[in-house]
């Protein structure tokens, strides 16, 4: 998989940050798979850089929990475990419920229009069957709800968690059997916000995360059987 990697240069960022962002994105989207070894020489050659920024990037990825150092093997992409997923989703469930409840009181007509358009964009993305496009549309939709809370501290917390959440979201989105369910859940959340039904939107947000958890656990166990 490492042969598909391409570094996206940014003249405003130091090289070590560019390499870090490239490897991080590859892990989050599954281009670099759980358990895959990160060999400094190979990555340096592939990305056209020296080993120093690769080594620095791997160290930062380890701090984020995306890379694990294995004795006598070196760096590997961290496994997606049920425990790590549960830890993230427990927090995400609580934050999502808070977001939709606050948005129920505070969302503007303009934001509701944006949310409606985002639901339609998500449905269009689903038809492409392109997991990256679907994940991007899903993030954009949820960002509208988070911003509608008007709570800067909450927005910051969700943004910090969303990068970790992306990896699990991507596992869920890879399961095409769940796409129609996702579309319907988004519709319910949108309609509940239109109707200012706090109880309904709160339940819809919980169900949304609960279904993701079930699907990702199934995916993790399937991957475990294959390996």
List keywords for this structure.
mainly alpha, 2 strands, 9 helices, two-stranded antiparallel sheet, elongated, 227 residues
Folded structure, characterized:
By secondary structure, the chain is mainly α. The chain contains 9 helices and 2 strands; from the N terminus they run αααββαααααα. It has helices at residues 15-28, 40-47, 51-63, 82-106, 109-128, 131-148, 152-173, 179-194, 198-226, and strands at residues 67-70, 74-77. The chain has a two-stranded antiparallel ribbon. Helix 4 (82-106) packs across helix 7 and helix 5 packs antiparallel against helix 8. It is elongated, with a radius of gyration of 19 Å. The model has no long low-confidence stretch (mean pLDDT 91).
Structural class: mainly alpha
Could you give the distance between the termini? 16 Å
Give the number of helices.
9
Mean pLDDT: 91
Described by strand count, sense and barrel closure, the largest sheet is: 2 strands, antiparallel
Oligomer: single chain
- Principal-axis shape equals elongated
Order of helices and strands: HHHEEHHHHHH
Helix proportion of residues, in percent?
over 70%
Q: Tell me the Rg in angstroms.
A: 19 Å
Q: Enumerate the strands of the largest sheet in spatial order, edge to edge or round the barrel.
A: 1-2
Strand content: under 5%
Q: Ranges with pLDDT <50 over ≥5 residues?
A: none
**Number of DSSP E strands:** 2
